[in-house]
């Protein structure tokens, strides 16, 4: 049954954002035009993006914040559950929280895109990425780092902070690589689709920190 015009109109911004995120993840923000986003989203009027978001940069900023906010909310909720149960009890458990909350629990049909999007964006335009966040939506991440410091009180602070930086770069790169592989529907990806893979990623990250 055709949707009512008002319903279709209200769903359009969300659909445009999902399609834009996919294209940006695949091609980078400089490799995608407003016209291409509108066409891929099935918008006959190529001015739809401007109508809903104002500009391509404004759309990019919304995508950054949408994903960061969702991850931060999942991360804080997971930490709250862990703390309520007496944890986290190990660095591995903290890494499991970081990894699991970085994965979209309800991705679009074509798969997850956010990690690829932000990794590419930070390489090409880190200033835009940081400005869009404006120091927000990372409280869960900072809480995870504080838990690691609590669990490793004997580690020299400069060495531990360095390893946490290494871990931060590694988690983004690994999960972006996972998204890229799983987006390839031409073949199977048994390693990345395996039920234990994310747990193994968490243990690898813990190894970086614990040395």
TrEMBL record:
Species the sequence originates in: Sphingopyxis macrogoltabida (Sphingomonas macrogoltabidus)
Origin superkingdom: Bacteria
Name of the protein this chain belongs to: HTH tetR-type domain-containing protein
Molecular function in Gene Ontology: DNA-binding transcription factor activity; transcription cis-regulatory region binding
HTH tetR-type domain mapped to chain residues: 18-63
Keyword DNA-binding included in the entry's annotation: yes
Pfam families per the UniProt record, alphabetical: TetR_N (PF00440)
Keyword annotations of the record: DNA-binding, Transcription, Transcription regulation
